[in-house]
C-alpha cells in the first residue's frame, strides 16, 4: 500500500473512532482543583486563589485571563476537546444551571475550584475561599434535581449514564498536610484521604454518575516551588512518595467500587508516571525546561505567583511549568493526550477514549 494511502486509512480509522466516542458523550462534568478550574474562583469574592489577570491566559484566544492557572488551555479543556467539545464546559458559578439545562444542547458543567481538596478544610483560610470537593458534589446534586424536573427520571438516567465525569483532585490536600505545623504521618493521612474520596464518589454514583475518568495526584514534589526546598533543586521525593501512595489508594478504591457497582466504568490516570515520563525524557517532547516556572520571580521563577509584573518566558512551548505549581498549556495537552489514548502503564484498566463504549 502506498504511504499516502496508509496515512489516509490511518487517519480515517482515527476519525471513525473519535466520532464513535463523541456520539456516546452527551455531557461532561468536571470536578477538581486548579488543574481543571476554568474560572470558578473568579466568582468567589473572598478568594485569594485566582488567575483572572495577566500573564495568565496569554496564549488563550484573544489573550484572555479566564481564571485558568495556565498560559492557555488546561488539561480539562484538552480532554473535552478529545470528545469533540470546543473546550471544558463552563464553570457552575458562571451559569444559571436551570437555564443551561433547558437549552437545546446541554453539554455539562465544570465545578472545579483552584485551591480545593478532598477535605473540606483544604484551602480554606481567612485569606482564601475555595469550593471543596464536598461542595462540588452538592452543586452537582442540585443540577441532578434540575435535570429531573426538566427532563424527567428516564431521560436524566440515560443522560448521566452516558456522560463522563472527570475528576482531578488531591494535590492540595497532600501539600497542605505536608507543610502544616503538625502534619499527619503519610501512613495515616493517605488512607484517610481515600475514605473521604470514596464517600464523594459514592455520592456521585447515588445520583447517576457511572463513567469516571480519574486523574491521580501528579509528582507535586517536582513543582518549581517544591524544588526550592531541596539542596540542588531536585524533586522533593517525600512529596512524590505521597503522590504514589495516593495513586495506590485510589487504584484500590476504584477496583472495589467497580466490583460493587457492576454498571460503573472507570479509567484511572497515573499522573506520577505520566509527568515523570515527560520530565525525565523532556527533550523527546521538545521541552527544554522542566525545573523553572515560565511566569514568576526569583530563583527558578518560583518565589511568587504569576502576576502582571512577573517575569514571562519567551518560548512557552518549551516549558513544562507555567507557574510555581501548574503546568503549561503544552504539558496539559500532553497529559490529556496520554489520558485519552495512553498505554496501561499510564492509564488503566482502560484509557479515557474507551470510556464511552465501556
Helix and strand topology:
Layout: H1 3-23, E1 28-32, H2 75-82, H3 97-102, E2 108-110, H4 133-151, H5 153-162, E3 164-168, H6 171-178, H7 186-206, E4 211-215, H8 224-227, H9 237-260, E5 265-269, H10 271-280, E6 289-293, E7 295-296, E8 311-312, E9 319-321, H11 329-341, E10 347-348
Parallel strand pairs: 1-2, 1-3, 3-4, 4-5, 6-9
Antiparallel strand pairs: 5-10, 7-8
Family: Belongs to the 'GDSL' lipolytic enzyme family.
Keywords: Hydrolase, Lipid degradation, Lipid metabolism, Signal
InterPro entries: GDSL, GDSL_Est/Lipase, SGNH_hydro_sf, SGNH_plant_lipase-like
Describe the fold and architecture.
The protein has 358 residues and is α/β, with parallel strands linked by helices. Helix content is 40%, strand content 10%. It has helices spanning 3-23, 75-82, 97-102, 133-151, 153-162, 171-178, 186-206, 224-227, 237-260, 271-280, 329-341, and strands spanning 28-32, 108-110, 164-168, 211-215, 265-269, 289-293, 295-296, 311-312, 319-321, 347-348. The strands form three sheets. It has a six-stranded mixed beta sheet with strand order 2-1-3-4-5-10, with helices on both faces. Helix 7 (186-206) packs parallel to helix 9. The two termini are 33 Å apart.
Question: What are the main properties of this structure?
Answer:
six-stranded mixed β-sheet; 10 strands; single chain; disordered N terminus; alpha/beta; hydrolase; 358 residues; two-stranded parallel sheet; 11 helices; SGNH_plant_lipase-like
